[in-house]
# Entry
Amino acid sequence: MGTKKTRKINKLCIEDLLGRPPIHINTDSIEHNLNNKIVLITGAAGSIGSEIVRQLCGFNVKILLLCDIAETPLYQLSLEISDTFPAVKTQLFLADVRNYDRMKMIFDQYCPQFVFHAAAYKHVPLMEMQPSEAILANVLGTKNVADLAIKYQSECFVMISTDKAVNPSSVMGASKRIAEIYIQYLANSQMTQREKSSTRFITTRFGNVLGSNGSVIPRFTKQIEAGGPITVTHPDIIRYFMTISEACNLVLEASILGKGGEIFVFDMGESINIKEMAESMIRLSGLEPYKDINIIFTGLRPGEKMYEELLYNKEMKLPTSHEKIMIIDKSDEYNYSDVIPKLLHLIESAAGNDNPLEIVKLMKEIVPEFISKNSIYAEINKKNISLHYS
# Structure
């Protein structure tokens, strides 16, 4: 039996899939504030982290500290930067944010003034099967880097979060929500202490990023090139989208706008139906949906929602000086004296490779609005369930 031939298709312009004009910002204020600064980017070799690096290369930073656990992507990024921006000074660190001592060595040697924390596990189905790893990477990793930012008096720490942290239905989304809570706790503590050298803690929350590693665009493109079919989980599933460049521009802008403690959300326009996006990609490729390329529906994956939200019901959006950036106004705060001990216990349990059901139960105690969907953990949504090892 012969294999499918890969077909030549028209080159796609990702911006054509947005259904809205691209978001632009004025970079003058960013360049001014980052002038001659030492900047650390965790997850530097990932989709978001590497684009932040590229944009920072256009400013007069003192040195860029590029930290990632992935050896080959980090090396490839270093080659790209040396070719494209030969005058920019960089330092590579093959390091895991889960390793406090390793991260401490970086802070101790360079004392970064700005920290952009992009390191995270992000794939929903995979994290659904590995809750301990989600906690160690997304919660412990965030805690390590944020704690060090305070210890070494960084000026600003920006955490990159996700709309999946809002009313989470997955382990990944809930782990990012718990990381958000810890950053809010640190920001609150800093403001309470009112220290002159306090670190500004800022969280940015946005939706799916078009063209990022593992996102639907590269997958759909490969499926079209292979002659189809395109696989979509559900005909009615919708998502918010931004381009990588937009997301990183707005993250940098938030680092300047934020005074500390804010969660920034970005106006990404109307949500997009994934089936309709697949149809558009087929047409933009010069082909006809359902004739040249079929679309099939495979069912929601573990932890996946039909739609995402950018804020909780109790949260309100306040405007900023940028029309596409808003600040979340929180109507109430967590009781940190209750939540933080639970968070620390969760990290300890994850490090001990505890039963996944027990890990997820602890997560739900910290984030009560975490309701598992299409998941083996849905049974924990029921009250008073007794969990035990099988």
In short: The mean pLDDT is 87. The longest strand covers residues 156-162. The radius of gyration is 21 Å.
